[in-house]
Protein backbone atom coordinates (compact mmCIF):
# COMPACT_ATOMS: atom_id res chain seq x y z
CA UNK A 1 0.00 0.00 0.00
CA UNK A 2 0.87 3.64 0.30
CA UNK A 3 1.67 3.41 4.00
CA UNK A 4 5.37 4.24 3.78
CA UNK A 5 4.60 7.24 1.59
CA UNK A 6 1.91 8.45 4.00
CA UNK A 7 4.23 8.09 7.00
CA UNK A 8 7.08 9.88 5.25
CA UNK A 9 4.84 12.74 4.07
CA UNK A 10 3.30 13.18 7.52
CA UNK A 11 6.73 13.19 9.19
CA UNK A 12 7.90 15.86 6.72
CA UNK A 13 4.92 18.06 7.56
CA UNK A 14 3.06 17.55 4.31
CA UNK A 15 -0.71 17.62 4.78
CA UNK A 16 -2.31 15.37 2.22
CA UNK A 17 -6.04 15.45 1.55
CA UNK A 18 -6.77 13.91 -1.84
CA UNK A 19 -9.41 11.17 -1.50
CA UNK A 20 -9.57 10.91 2.30
CA UNK A 21 -9.71 14.44 3.71
CA UNK A 22 -11.21 13.68 7.13
CA UNK A 23 -9.02 10.61 7.65
CA UNK A 24 -5.87 12.57 6.81
CA UNK A 25 -6.97 15.43 9.07
CA UNK A 26 -7.55 13.06 12.00
CA UNK A 27 -4.23 11.27 11.54
CA UNK A 28 -2.44 14.63 11.35
CA UNK A 29 -4.08 15.60 14.68
CA UNK A 30 -2.79 12.32 16.15
CA UNK A 31 0.65 13.18 14.78
CA UNK A 32 0.44 16.56 16.54
CA UNK A 33 -0.19 14.67 19.80
CA UNK A 34 2.30 11.84 19.35
CA UNK A 35 5.08 13.52 17.31
CA UNK A 36 5.62 10.22 15.49
CA UNK A 37 4.02 9.62 12.10
CA UNK A 38 4.18 5.83 12.26
CA UNK A 39 2.60 5.78 15.72
CA UNK A 40 -0.12 8.17 14.56
CA UNK A 41 -1.15 5.74 11.82
CA UNK A 42 -0.89 2.75 14.14
CA UNK A 43 -3.10 4.41 16.74
CA UNK A 44 -5.64 5.43 14.08
CA UNK A 45 -5.68 1.88 12.72
CA UNK A 46 -6.09 0.29 16.15
CA UNK A 47 -8.80 2.71 17.28
CA UNK A 48 -10.61 2.07 14.01
CA UNK A 49 -10.44 -1.67 14.69
CA UNK A 50 -11.88 -1.24 18.17
CA UNK A 51 -14.66 0.94 16.80
CA UNK A 52 -15.37 -1.55 14.04
CA UNK A 53 -15.69 -4.41 16.55
CA UNK A 54 -18.09 -2.40 18.70
CA UNK A 55 -20.27 -1.42 15.73
CA UNK A 56 -20.27 -4.95 14.27
CA UNK A 57 -21.39 -6.29 17.64
CA UNK A 58 -24.22 -3.74 17.76
CA UNK A 59 -25.21 -4.52 14.15
CA UNK A 60 -25.27 -8.26 14.72
CA UNK A 61 -27.24 -7.83 17.95
CA UNK A 62 -29.79 -5.78 16.02
CA UNK A 63 -30.07 -8.29 13.18
CA UNK A 64 -30.05 -11.68 14.91
CA UNK A 65 -31.57 -13.36 17.93
CA UNK A 66 -29.20 -14.14 20.76
CA UNK A 67 -27.27 -17.37 20.81
CA UNK A 68 -25.00 -19.27 18.45
CA UNK A 69 -26.20 -17.44 15.33
CA UNK A 70 -25.20 -14.06 16.79
CA UNK A 71 -21.77 -15.38 17.79
CA UNK A 72 -21.24 -17.06 14.40
CA UNK A 73 -22.22 -13.97 12.44
CA UNK A 74 -19.99 -11.74 14.55
CA UNK A 75 -17.04 -14.07 14.04
CA UNK A 76 -17.78 -14.38 10.33
CA UNK A 77 -17.54 -10.61 9.91
CA UNK A 78 -14.55 -10.14 12.21
CA UNK A 79 -12.26 -12.86 10.81
CA UNK A 80 -12.22 -11.69 7.19
CA UNK A 81 -8.91 -10.71 5.60
CA UNK A 82 -9.71 -6.99 5.59
CA UNK A 83 -9.30 -6.84 9.39
CA UNK A 84 -5.55 -6.59 8.83
CA UNK A 85 -6.10 -2.86 8.30
CA UNK A 86 -6.96 -2.64 12.01
CA UNK A 87 -3.62 -3.94 13.26
CA UNK A 88 -1.41 -0.90 12.84
CA UNK A 89 -1.65 -0.66 9.05
CA UNK A 90 -0.69 2.80 7.75
CA UNK A 91 -3.70 3.41 5.53
CA UNK A 92 -7.01 5.29 5.62
CA UNK A 93 -9.40 2.45 4.94
CA UNK A 94 -9.75 1.43 8.59
CA UNK A 95 -11.66 4.58 9.41
CA UNK A 96 -13.72 4.18 6.22
CA UNK A 97 -14.79 0.69 7.33
CA UNK A 98 -15.82 2.01 10.75
CA UNK A 99 -17.81 4.88 9.29
CA UNK A 100 -19.46 2.62 6.69
CA UNK A 101 -20.50 0.20 9.43
CA UNK A 102 -21.78 3.13 11.51
CA UNK A 103 -23.82 4.30 8.52
CA UNK A 104 -25.34 0.83 8.17
CA UNK A 105 -26.17 0.70 11.88
CA UNK A 106 -27.86 4.12 12.08
CA UNK A 107 -29.68 3.33 8.82
CA UNK A 108 -31.15 0.23 10.46
CA UNK A 109 -32.25 2.36 13.41
CA UNK A 110 -33.82 4.88 11.03
CA UNK A 111 -35.57 2.09 9.13
CA UNK A 112 -37.20 1.06 12.42
CA UNK A 113 -38.03 4.76 12.99
CA UNK A 114 -36.00 4.72 16.21
CA UNK A 115 -34.17 7.79 14.90
CA UNK A 116 -34.83 10.30 12.14
CA UNK A 117 -33.30 10.36 8.68
CA UNK A 118 -31.05 13.22 9.71
CA UNK A 119 -28.81 10.82 11.65
CA UNK A 120 -27.88 8.44 8.77
CA UNK A 121 -27.58 11.52 6.54
CA UNK A 122 -25.09 13.09 8.94
CA UNK A 123 -23.13 9.85 9.34
CA UNK A 124 -23.09 9.50 5.55
CA UNK A 125 -21.70 13.04 5.21
CA UNK A 126 -18.91 12.21 7.67
CA UNK A 127 -18.28 8.88 5.91
CA UNK A 128 -17.93 10.58 2.53
CA UNK A 129 -15.51 13.08 4.06
CA UNK A 130 -13.56 10.18 5.57
CA UNK A 131 -12.99 8.85 2.07
CA UNK A 132 -14.63 10.20 -1.06
CA UNK A 133 -15.17 6.65 -2.34
CA UNK A 134 -17.97 6.43 0.23
CA UNK A 135 -20.09 8.61 -2.05
CA UNK A 136 -21.19 5.30 -3.57
CA UNK A 137 -23.26 4.84 -0.38
CA UNK A 138 -25.47 7.84 -1.22
CA UNK A 139 -28.14 5.77 -3.00
CA UNK A 140 -28.64 3.83 0.25
CA UNK A 141 -29.92 7.01 1.89
CA UNK A 142 -32.43 7.51 -0.93
CA UNK A 143 -33.55 3.89 -0.60
CA UNK A 144 -33.88 4.35 3.15
CA UNK A 145 -36.09 7.39 2.63
CA UNK A 146 -38.21 5.42 0.15
CA UNK A 147 -38.61 2.50 2.58
CA UNK A 148 -39.68 4.88 5.35
CA UNK A 149 -42.49 6.45 3.32
CA UNK A 150 -44.72 8.29 3.70
CA UNK A 151 -42.06 10.95 4.10
CA UNK A 152 -42.62 13.80 6.48
CA UNK A 153 -41.27 17.32 5.96
CA UNK A 154 -38.60 16.84 8.63
CA UNK A 155 -37.47 13.62 6.89
CA UNK A 156 -36.99 15.51 3.64
CA UNK A 157 -35.07 18.20 5.51
CA UNK A 158 -32.99 15.50 7.19
CA UNK A 159 -31.99 14.13 3.78
CA UNK A 160 -30.50 17.51 2.91
CA UNK A 161 -27.96 17.04 5.71
CA UNK A 162 -25.95 14.58 3.59
CA UNK A 163 -24.92 16.89 0.74
CA UNK A 164 -24.90 20.06 2.84
CA UNK A 165 -23.02 18.35 5.68
CA UNK A 166 -20.46 16.88 3.28
CA UNK A 167 -19.87 20.27 1.72
CA UNK A 168 -19.55 22.04 5.09
CA UNK A 169 -17.17 19.44 6.53
CA UNK A 170 -14.99 19.64 3.43
CA UNK A 171 -14.96 23.44 3.73
CA UNK A 172 -13.97 23.20 7.40
CA UNK A 173 -11.13 20.87 6.41
CA UNK A 174 -10.03 23.46 3.84
CA UNK A 175 -10.48 20.85 1.12
CA UNK A 176 -10.09 22.12 -2.42
CA UNK A 177 -13.64 21.56 -3.67
CA UNK A 178 -12.41 21.95 -7.24
CA UNK A 179 -10.69 18.57 -6.88
CA UNK A 180 -14.08 16.87 -6.81
Classify the secondary structure makeup into a structural class.
mainly alpha
Q: How many separate helices?
A: 9
Shape descriptor: flat
Rg measurement, Å: 17 Å
Describe this structure as you would to a colleague.
This protein is mostly helical and about 180 residues long. The mean pLDDT is about 90. Helix content is about 70%, strand content about 0%. Helix 2 crosses helix 3 (about 35-65) and helix 3 runs parallel beside helix 5.
Essential attributes:
9 helices; 180 residues
What's the SSE blueprint?
Layout: H1 3-11, H2 21-34, H3 37-63, H4 68-78, H5 93-111, H6 118-130, H7 138-147, H8 153-159, H9 161-172
Helix pairs in contact: 2-3, 3-4, 3-5, 5-6, 6-8, 6-9
Q: What is this structure, in a nutshell?
A:
The protein has nine helices and no strands. The chain is an all-alpha fold and 180 residues long.
